[in-house]
Amino acid sequence: MIGSGLAASLIAILAASALAVGVSLWFIHAAPPSTVTITSGPAGSIFQRIAERYQKVLARSGIRLKILTSQGSLENLTRLNDPRFRVDIGFVQTGLAAGMNVDRLVSLGSIAYEPLLVFYRGAPAVSDLSDLKGRRIAVGPVGSGTRTLALEILKLNGIAPGGTTQLLALDGRAAADALIQGRIDCAFLMGESASPAILRELLHSPGIDLMDFRQADAYTRRFDYLNKLVLPMGVIDFGKNIPSHDIHLIAPTVELVARAGLHPALSDLLIDAARQVNGRATLLQRRGEFPAPLGDEFRISSDALRYYKSGKSFLYSALPFWVASLVDRVLAVFLPILVLLIPSFKILPALYAWRIKYRIYHWYGALLDLERDLHAGATPREALLRRLDTIEEAVNRMKIPVAFADQLYVLRDNIRFVRERIAEAANMGPQAAEAG
Q1: What is the predicted pLDDT for the residue at 315?
Q2: Model pLDDT for residues 223-245, shown as the tens digit of each residue
Q3: Could you tell me if 133 and 140 are in contact, meaning their C-beta atoms sit under 8 angstroms apart?
Q4: Gyration radius of the chain over CA positions
Q5: Please, are residues 50 and 78 in contact by the beta-carbon 8 Å criterion?
Q6: pLDDT digit string (tens) for 277-314?
Q7: Which of 37, 35, 62, 63 is nearest to 51 (CA)?
Q8: How far apart are CA 31 and CA 328, in angstroms?
Q9: 166-168: strand order across its sheet
Q10: How far apart, in whole angstroms, are the C-alpha atoms of residue 163 and residue 126?
Q11: What does the alpha-carbon distance between residue 162 and residue 298 come to, in Å, rounded to a whole number?
Q12: Residues near 385 by Cβ (< 8 Å), separated by ≥ 6?
């Protein structure tokens, strides 16, 4: 009994220690990281500026956002999809993931439209992209979403690399300078590679015009990830009436893409940052239009869907981020334990009573075996008495709660009863011999 009790105690100690270690490791693992890495866009681009504004918002919750520059959306997507590259989130324009396995990636929502702006110089006016055949065109650097979209739609208009049209891999600043200086005839620009200052400079530059996509509806029918937008007449400069007429544009949306293992608390923080940064009205979007769970190419994460349906959880709304994170993890550990313990509170008294009764019933079993041997008559009386003494001694050493004292006294009465039966059997032996 002592050996089995010691073994049970050791098992209980080891189990408790393993549980404590497991809970500690889970607590460390479940804590949201203090640093998040985002792959944005070229230095000075709109993508870069958005990332910097996210950085300020996240810093208020104690999260450091590390910004990595890139050539644009395509490089961002490549980085995110490569598990060897240390990056957590990134800006990716829609339309780039065709034929690519993106099962390990999720979207936290679309954060903005990204219009394709086609600037050109000289007369006559460019009304369709096919008018650009034979000209010098900057289509964006390798690794940018601008280049991918530009090459795709130019191909539909009979313009492809290797032909008479020169397709140049210039970034935003280089393309704008080359266009202003007359070294190229046209530049495809998007927010991922061009800064607002570059776009304003081109819109105000004499002799440079912004192409009106007259076939915008057709492009949106051909590519379901494109949207038709209208830049109203005069919206850039009312005094100079820039632009001089409504200009139709085509635009993919920009997704805030993350790896599937992003911590739920960080997901909430990032979407909240996107609401503060991207939720305002602009020339091309209404207030509150973004962020939105559009899910054009990437599945919307379950955490993002929950946020869009019900907002931040109560803890993260009412408490500072790190306090809420701590409380959240404490609840995650102890609520399941409580769920398991509450039924055990009802079971434990029954188990305890069964354990006490089992100790008593064990000696009843020993008494029954002894009585069987007594009736069989094959065991000497002295041996039976020694066994009974052993049983009685063990019973007298038992420590039983007061609630079970009556059963202990009944057991002792039964021991005396068996002792009397042994004595009766001994007395009957000589009488039977005399009668014979």
Answers
A1: 61
A2: 999 999 999 999 888 998 988 99
A3: no
A4: 41
A5: no
A6: 999 988 889 999 999 998 778 999 988 888 888 776 66
A7: 37
A8: 10
A9: 166-168, 136-138, 186-189, 117-121, 208-210
A10: 20
A11: 33
A12: 419, 422
Structure tokens at 151: 């090459």
**Could you tell me if 272 and 312 are in contact, meaning their C-beta atoms sit under 8 angstroms apart?**
yes
* Calpha distance 25→19 (Å, rounded): 10
Report whether 269 contacts 322 (CB < 8 A): no
Evaluate whether 291 touches 75 at the Cβ level (below 8 Å): no
> From CA 127, how far away is CA 109, in angstroms rounded?
34
Tokens representing 115 are 């219009």
Token pair listed for 269: 């923080």
What span, in angstroms and rounded, lies between the C-alpha atoms of 121 and 182? 8
Per-residue model confidence (pLDDT) at position 343: 66
Cα 51 to Cα 49: distance, rounded to the nearest angstrom:
5
DSSP secondary structure letters along 319-334: S-HHHHHHHHHHHHHH
User: How many CB atoms are located within 10 Å of the residue 415 CB?
Assistant: 21
Helix, strand, or coil here: 298? coil
**Whole-angstrom Cα distance, residue 200 to residue 365?**
98
Higher pLDDT, 291 or 343: 291
| Residue 156 to residues 118, 129, 222, 370, Cα–Cα distance (Å) | 16, 9, 10, 101
In this structure, the strands spanning 105-113 and 89-93 are unpaired
Full-prediction pTM beyond 0.70? no
d(CA 358, CA 319): 52
Q: Taking residues 241-251, what's their average pLDDT?
A: 92
- Classified as helix, coil or strand, 140 is coil
CB 59 within 8 A of CB 65: yes
Query: Nearest CA to 109 among 267, 265, 250?
Result: 267
Angle at 271 between CA 267 and CA 272, to 5 degrees: 115
Judged on CB neighbours under 10 Å (0-12, 13-18, 19+), 90 is: buried
Per-residue pLDDT, averaged over 193-204, amounts to 88
Task: Give the C-alpha separation, 274 to 292, whole Å.
Answer: 10
Beta strands in 139-196 (DSSP E): 166-168, 186-189
The DSSP bridge partners found for residue 113 are 253
| Residue whose structure tokens are 């006294």 | 409
CA distances from 428 to 245, 273, 336, 375, 423 (A): 129, 98, 66, 13, 9
Cα 156 off chain centre by: 40
Q: Which residue reads 């065991």 in tokens?
A: 379
